[in-house]
Amino acid sequence: MATLFEAWQGVQGRIDAACTACARNPAEISLLAVSKTFPASAVRELYMLGQRHFGENYAQELSQKYAELADCTELHWHFIGPLQSNKTKQVAECADWVHAIDRSKIAERLNQQRPEHLPLLNVCLQVNVSGEESKSGVSPAQLFELAAAVTQLPRLKLRGLMCIPEATDDEVKLAKQFQLLKQCQAKLIQAGFTMDTLSMGMSADLELAIANGSTLVRVGSAIFGARHYSQQEKQ
Ligand SMILES: *Cc1c(COP(=O)(O)O)cnc(C)c1O
């Protein structure tokens, strides 16, 4: 079995190879290590090896790991899960980034609850690129309005867009959905919004996401191994 170090290096090798294949600079891609369901000790081990950005899906789990790893001063937490109103305070106090903003009410609460002594909270807007009804995210048509609302909030910094494409192996479909996110970003930039992040690509599809413009890949199982859900439901 590969060690955590080998698995992490393996993912970095995949990112480098994907960049070579599409003539991009690997320095443009951030690797977010998604540590949900794995213990703080695994996060610490990877942090000691040099990984700095970690992603969590559940507010309670984030705040526990945040407290346990408070001595890791260069560790940046990204909240990547769906966020309910009653969980925004915990997230506003622990996270450096929130990826899945899909309504202004959540953004407003995060803005109010972001502690004064912390830097601005970086946010990405989640776009429903597959059009599936079950998926969270705003539709491309509603995106402009949400982006405009978020840029009015002084404690948040709009950094970009995020998507979770359809669960399919069909690379043509996936590529279209990644391209749609890229086009949404281009339209917003053209309309005067400033942003630098496209959060797309996970363990199974990071190469395709990079080929289609990703600047941040969210990788869990390819680094930490298979997740075992006990009390938590798979999202
Ligand atoms: C769990 C999760 C990931 C990581 O998924 P893997 O397939 O394990 O790489 C990425 N993004 C989000 C939003 C997740 O919930």
TrEMBL record:
<keyword id="KW-0663">Pyridoxal phosphate</keyword>
<feature type="domain" description="Alanine racemase N-terminal">
    <location>
        <begin position="31"/>
        <end position="227"/>
    </location>
</feature>
<dbReference type="InterPro" id="IPR029066">
    <property type="entry name" value="PLP-binding_barrel"/>
</dbReference>
<dbReference type="Pfam" id="PF01168">
    <property type="entry name" value="Ala_racemase_N"/>
</dbReference>
<comment type="function">
    <text>Pyridoxal 5'-phosphate (PLP)-binding protein, which is involved in PLP homeostasis.</text>
</comment>
<dbReference type="InterPro" id="IPR011078">
    <property type="entry name" value="PyrdxlP_homeostasis"/>
</dbReference>
<dbReference type="GO" id="GO:0030170">
    <property type="term" value="F:pyridoxal phosphate binding"/>
</dbReference>
<feature type="modified residue" description="N6-(pyridoxal phosphate)lysine">
    <location>
        <position position="36"/>
    </location>
</feature>
<comment type="similarity">
    <text>Belongs to the pyridoxal phosphate-binding protein YggS/PROSC family.</text>
</comment>
<dbReference type="InterPro" id="IPR001608">
    <property type="entry name" value="Ala_racemase_N"/>
</dbReference>
<protein>
    <recommendedName>
        <fullName>Pyridoxal phosphate homeostasis protein</fullName>
    </recommendedName>
</protein>
